[in-house]
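[Q] Does anyone have a clean structure-token version of this?
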Amino acid sequence: MAKKILVAYGTFSGSTAETAEFIGKKLSEKGMQADVKPVNKIKSVEGYDGVIIGSAVVMGKIKSSVVKFVSVNKDRLSKVSVGYFLVCLTVQKDTPENRKAASVYLEPLSSVVKPVSEGLFPGKVDFKTLRFPMSLLTLMPAFKKGVPEGDYRDWAKIEKWAVETASKF
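[A] Here you go.
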């Protein structure tokens, strides 16, 4: 019987949603049943063999809806294997220092339910997709200079992490 995995996510401007969809697709290609949903659309985590939870990071914080999802579902999540992933520009340059800094962003989740795996991935910056109030930052020349537009995701690395994480479920 195929493992049933939930890929839950919180996104600010779509990059994390795209990453979650990609993870779900790759798990399905490996013979698993993957359901990909935003955390605010999930009614229950019952019936899953494992849960992968992802969040965008903006200004050093993950989505509050993701923190709430883990807290509300703590009892059930503590009975299955859980993997967390972040999409943030802190790891645009993959150095030990940047990975350490980014892993701190997961503490609001890992302090509630310990994961079997953590994935830290750079995201995509597209000024056209930023919503208010973040869109106001694009009016500042210093912001645009310090945060260059582009897609920094390494899809092969994300796939490798997803498959390795699911194998722990």
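[Q] Thanks! Anything notable?
[A] Residues 11 and 56 are 5 Å apart (CA to CA).
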